[in-house]
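U., I forgot to send this yesterday:
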Amino acid sequence: DGVDLARTIRAAYPRLPILLVTGYAGSVGSVGSDFPVLAKPYRLEQLRQAIAELMAGGKSQREVA
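Result:
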């Protein structure tokens, strides 16, 4: 699944920013604090903010609301 893929990528490229996006309501909590998660539906501004935080090296292990 996407979380397993993200963990594999993180192991190979630890500095690569990763943002998970999900439409499943139960998925946000199940990821834990490994990766930031953007829940669907989201506004373009929320996506822009999440990407900007990742690229700026902001806190990368939190849920993006």
